[in-house]
Write a structure and sequence with these properties.
The protein is α+β, with helices and mostly antiparallel strands. The chain has one domain. It has 5 helices and 10 strands; from the N terminus they run αβββββββαβββααα. The strands form 2 sheets. Strands 1, 2, 3, 4, 5, 6, 7 and 10 form an 8-stranded antiparallel β-sheet that branches. Strands 8-9 form a two-stranded antiparallel sheet. α3 packs antiparallel against α4 and α4 crosses α5.
Length: 243
Amino acid sequence: MATSGALTKQAFDFAAKLTELLNSTVTDNVRLAAVFSEEVNRVHLGYRLSKHNLVSRQYFPLRQRDNNPRLYMQVSAQCVLDPEKQYLTMHQSVFALAFDEDGEREFCHFDYERDKGDGYPESHFQINADSEFMQDYLSKCKEAEPPLRSVERDEEGRRVRGPRIIGKIHFPSGSRRFRTSLEDIVEFLVGEKIVPDLTMDQQNFLNQSRQDFHDLQLCAAIRRRPEVAATALRSAGWSVQTP
């Protein structure tokens, strides 16, 4: 019970921080919830979640820039405690962008899945796009595994493998510790003029939020490789004592 309480508390704080980040930069009145699931001993995080709806991956609207068409975002995650049962750890997460509220016209998504066992990068992104050159290249490659092909239906409704598509390719986006963050995606939306420009205060908030994330990831890396951290500190003139 104590473990689940510690997990829920940290996940609730994390959801609140992401909510503040979004509403301070690219959204209005969005609230991300954190809900503990006893069945899998994880906390689900996302938009419009509840105890009765743990798998919701609903999209919320982003702020509009001038008369630009509105874009929608999804933020969802599953969190656990680390092996020492002390710190919040991301088990998997999804940051997605779509042209409609239902997500049927998805633009791209950034995925993270810890210990992903299918040969793809733990942290990766996929984009629904067309490229004449890439499509030509893929068509000339050797036979692809099913995940790299679209699934279509013939005239009788039977599932058949379609052509290889770019949207099925998993592009790497950093390592477990230093993967694409929500702050990076916010900066992308602002920099590409998809959402309104940030004020100086908003930009400072975004920068600090990203620095906080990097610091947390650095601490996690140090806990797993303390000898590397000690060597780096000694080389910089610090005095480090082995426990």
